[in-house]
Amino acid sequence: MFFNHELEASAEVASVIRSSDYGSDVEFILGDADADHGEIDFAISIGGDGTFLLTSKTIMGMGAPLYGVNRGRLGFLASGDARRAAADVAKILDGDYETYPIIPLRAAISGRDGTESAMWAFNEVMIVKNLVSRPIALSAHIDGKNLYSFLSDGIIVSTPIGSTAYSLSAGGPIVHPGVSGQAIVPICAHSLSPRPMLVPASTLIEIELESPAEGATLSADGMNSTFMSPGDTVGITSDPAGLVDVIRLDGGSYPDVLRDKLNWS
Predict the structure, then answer these.
(1) Residues tagged active-site
(2) Which residue of 38, 119, 165, 242 has the fewest CB atoms within a 10 Å radius of its CB?
(3) Do the beta carbons of residue 125 and residue 219 sit within 8 Å?
(4) Which ranges constitute the DSSP H helices of the chain?
(5) Rounded (10°) angle between helices 85-93 and 8-19
(6) Distance (Å, rounded) from C-alpha 207 to C-alpha 235?
(7) What's the pTM?
(8) pLDDT tens digits, residue range 36-85?
């Protein structure tokens, strides 16, 4: 179990689950997201969507399904009800659940100085300006073809599950999680030309920072971040090797989730 140690309510749910009787052959590990816990049968994230995303990165590619218990605010991803957590775990142990896959983005950063690095994101990869008063100049390519160059506050590349996060606030589309794609969303572009765009998941999106000299910040899920200098490029595409199967118990539809979380009538 992975939980937000800063939220007392999360610790309480973890304690309830761990103290429940599921049989002598069931063992729970209270884990740190940056530690290696060996082979696990399934993972439980207790907290908000941030805890869920951090847990997803910890177990990506392991083949262990993930169940999220919401103790945060919206809970788009960690949708499990804390009041039913112990009973829900019993269902999972009995195999009474469904799953849906989430696939991360891999962002490969190529520095002008020849350095190479990578980071992963289940919600979004974004490039944002460092100076409040100055926009950044970006150029975007898809599969080697020029898409557009523009001045803006930044750009977001979002997964379908991340489309209801920062991407939505920036004017991007809501993308059904069953869609295999990536959303490209400029942030406050200084012209009406560069518009949000949905491309296939296999598309290689390359974004180069052209200016200013003060650079920009590249971030993955608002957690990992790195400085970008003019001339640096990031290549973004879906990484199926990092797939995580998310456990779904309530059988609710995606429109149900949207109506509940976005207060639609």
Answers:
(1) 49
(2) 38
(3) yes
(4) 8-19, 49-59, 85-93, 166-169, 254-262
(5) 50
(6) 7
(7) 0.91
(8) 667 788 899 998 888 899 999 989 989 999 999 988 777 788 888 889 99
